[in-house]
Specification:
Elements: E1 6-9, E2 16-17, H1 19-32, H2 40-44, H3 51-59, H4 64-81, E3 87-88, H5 92-101, E4 105-109, H6 114-121, E5 132-134, H7 147-156, E6 163-167, H8 170-179, E7 182-186, H9 193-197, E8 203-205
Parallel strand pairs: 1-4, 1-6, 4-5, 6-7, 7-8
Antiparallel strand pairs: 2-3
Helix pairs in contact: 1-4, 3-4
């Protein structure tokens, strides 16, 4: 496929499988508030959305104060359980190193907190390995708003035409579309090929290896 100057990645279900930690943290909060009927798959289908949106989808709650309280509880659980239950996909390091050797700039645009992403990545990559990481605390509007994507391109000095955004969800596809970049869908997560192919895309593949 075409070579790009910048490869910007979603994190959860794209570079890393954090589903075990995410399900664990959601379940602890949900069961505390007596939402014991929510399935693991229903939780996994919300990965990539904001915590408030996810809790609203899973519980039916729309009150902003209640959702903010659930988010606060989730973050406390994640501080304990998330990093230990998050794992890079088998090809992640190989692909990222291959792109770096090619001279491409690489970055991450995620709704996950930047400090949480960096906590995991520090176990696998040098401190300056990524050219930019944009987390949920770095933007005013979460994906599918293109705010984080546009900010990263500006900081990296890359045009939309030279940038590929890679993700696993329809939120990621919508983000790339809103930001005017090409999109590569990766089938690591709960989103199906058919769901991703409904959006403009360069490729939808089973593995990140398609990039190299």
């Amino acid at each position: 496929m075409k070579h790009y100057n910048a490869y910007l990645f979603d994190f959860d279900y794209t570079l890393a499988d954090s589903s075990r930690g995410i399900v664990m943290c959601f379940r602890r909060v949900l069961e505390r508030h007596h939402y014991s009927q929510v399935t693991d798959n229903e939780i996994k289908r919300t990965i990539g959305k904001t915590l408030e949106n996810s809790f609203s989808i899973l519980t039916g709650v729309t009150d902003t104060d209640t959702l903010a309280a659930y988010k606060k509880e989730y973050v406390k659980e994640a501080d304990v359980y998330m990093t230990a239950n998050t794992f890079l996909f088998p090809e992640t390091a190989e692909v990222l190193n291959g792109l770096k050797k090619r001279g491409a700039k690489i970055g991450i645009i995620s709704t996950k907190f930047r400090y949480r992403i960096m906590e995991l990545l520090s176990k696998h990559f040098p401190t300056d390995f990524f050219d930019i990481i944009v987390g949920g605390e770095d933007v005013k509007t979460a994906k599918p708003s293109p705010e984080g994507l546009l900010f990263a391109m500006q900081r990296l000095g890359c045009s939309k035409e030279e940038t590929l955004y890679i993700g696993d969800s329809t939120v990621d596809a919508e983000t790339a579309q809103a930001g005017g970049t090409d999109f590569a869908g990766i089938l690591h997560g709960a989103t199906t090929r058919e769901e991703l192919e409904a959006y403009p895309h360069t490729v939808v593949a089973d593995s990140l290896r398609i990039l190299i």
